[in-house]
Write a structure and sequence with these properties.
Distance between the termini: 46 Å
Number of helices: 14
CATH class of the largest domain: Alpha Beta
Structural class: alpha+beta
CATH architecture of the largest domain: 3-Layer(aba) Sandwich
Keywords: Lyase, Metal-binding
Mean pLDDT: 93
Low-confidence stretches: none
GO biological process, one term: pentose catabolic process
Shape: globular
GO molecular function: aldehyde-lyase activity; metal ion binding
Order of helices and strands: HEEEEHEHHEHEEHHHEEEEHEHHEHEEHH
Strand content: 15-25%
CATH topology of the largest domain: L-fuculose-1-phosphate Aldolase
Number of domains: 2
Organism: Jejuia pallidilutea
Protein name: Ribulose-5-phosphate 4-epimerase and related epimerases and aldolases
Strand order of the largest sheet: 4-3-2-1-5-8-7-6
């Protein structure tokens, strides 16, 4: 989907995003609905009782400002609360409602996830509202949800129902939806292995403050054939990471070394699902490609490349099972299966704040390990080829998932020291 969504018809926007939600397992065939209100006041909305896994643009319904319905299906049964939200909040131009499993878990125990579990979610999601249970599809449900939106919320937990989120456009709403479900999943997985720790508002503000400032612009830029190939490789890995649930719209940085300390890196403030070749930022001699803003983590990538000549690609992201260890501070023992240990060896935990510019960050950049978790922030994976680095990320997330899922079965029995030494002799010497 193009970054300039104003140039895409609401029908196509809706089908693209509902497809993402369905394929990521965040709604069912019959569940969930999306709408957009256009400049004419007409509301475009998903249809009722039509397979969410195969929606086409022609299936999307238009409810005109005067109430006339245009389309071959009935509008979603939840259309009343979409309409109520738009009437209550003129700044809201798109609404997403779905039943993602983790947020439903919070809704059925009648709790709100604490988004201070990771650095940026508080600013993306904002404060979270809570709507009492009402009959689905009823005007009464629309009233209680609209009342919550009138309080200024853009994200609402619906009691025994799911969640509803609004945004200035569909991309904004989806980023909020994805970030909130990520927080919920990470908290749930974290509680399986320990006690989640949360950042204070002061810690989050300190992160936001230190992350500001960009590199100076270079006067001219050249694009070699090799660089163009690497741009495509970065875009493909970013989109694959999003599809695999290893990266979310609002967070994730990928870079590749060009030569010496020069590299390509993903930008900041661009939805990861929509990233394109011309979004990638060239960094050369400590300067950035003109007119582009690199990831706020660009300085960490630069330091890793400068101090680790064998590292040629870096992925810095948040994946839910790895971050379960990041928010609890529990050690992730990757001696689960031979492949995990061979690829990753040991995964260390760095304290929150060690990734700040002003901190002595040698723990992160010196003798850079294949995988490192920064508490309540991210995981950093390094490697030679980018596909190899992505494979390491997948292996790390699978290892973390196996441990979280196995925790309820009994105590983990890792590969022993003798077995590890055999692996070392065969594969690493």
């Amino acid at each position: 989907m193009s970054k300039n969504i104003k140039l895409i018809h609401p029908r196509n926007q809706i089908t693209e995003v509902i497809s993402r939600i369905y394929k990521r397992g965040m709604t069912t065939t019959s569940g969930g609905n999306i709408s957009i209100i256009d400049d004419n006041g007409d509301i475009w909305v998903t249809p009722s009782a039509i397979d969410k896994g195969s929606l086409r643009a022609s299936d999307i319904i238009c409810v005109k400002k005067d109430g006339t319905i245009i389309g071959k299906h009935k509008p979603s049964s939840e259309f009343p609360f979409h309409k109520a939200i738009y009437e209550a909040r003129p700044d809201i131009r798109s609404v997403i409602h779905a039943h993602p499993p983790a947020l439903v878990s919070f809704s059925i125990v009648r709790q709100i996830p604490n988004t201070n579990v990771i650095s940026q979610a508080k600013h993306i999601c904002g404060p979270i509202g809570y709507a009492k249970y009402r009959l689905p599809g009823s005007e009464d449900l629309g009233d209680v949800i609209a009342d919550e939106f009138k309080k200024g919320y853009k994200a609402i937990i619906m009691e025994n129902h799911g969640t509803v989120l609004g945004g200035s456009d569909l991309t904004d709403a989806y980023e909020r939806f994805e970030a909130l479900e990520f927080c919920a999943r990470t908290i749930l997985y974290g509680t399986q292995i320990g006690t989640p720790n949360y950042l204070t508002d002061e810690q989050i503000e300190a992160f936001e403050s230190q992350a500001k400032g960009v590199l100076p612009e270079m006067e001219s830029v050249e694009y070699s054939s090799e660089e163009l190939e690497k741009r495509l490789e970065i875009c493909n890995i970013v989109k694959r990471s999003c599809q695999q649930g290893l990266m979310i719209s609002s967070y994730g940085t990928v870079s590749m070394r060009l030569k010496e300390g020069d590299f390509l890196i993903t930008p900041t403030d661009i939805n990861r699902w929509d990233i394109d070749l011309d979004d990638i930022v060239q960094i050369k001699n400590g300067q950035r490609e003109a007119g582009k803003t690199p990831s706020r983590a660009a300085w960490i990538h630069q330091e890793i490349y400068n101090r680790n000549p064998d590292v040629n690609s870096i992925i810095m992201t948040q994946s839910p099972y790895l971050m379960a260890f990041g928010i609890t501070g529990k050690h992730l023992n990757v001696r689960t299966i031979p492949e995990s240990w061979i690829f990753l060896q040991d995964i260390n935990l760095a304290e929150y704040g060690t990734h700040f510019r002003t901190h002595n960050n040698s723990e992160i950049v010196d003798n850079c390990s294949t995988a490192l978790i920064i508490k309540n922030d991210s995981v950093i994976i390094t490697g030679d080829k980018l596909l190899q680095t992505f494979d390491y990320l997948e292996v790390a997330e699978f290892s973390a998932k196996s441990i979280v899922l196995g925790h309820g079965l009994g105590e983990m029995v890792p590969i022993n020291d003798e077995q590890v030494e055999d692996l070392r002799q065969k594969f690493l010497t």
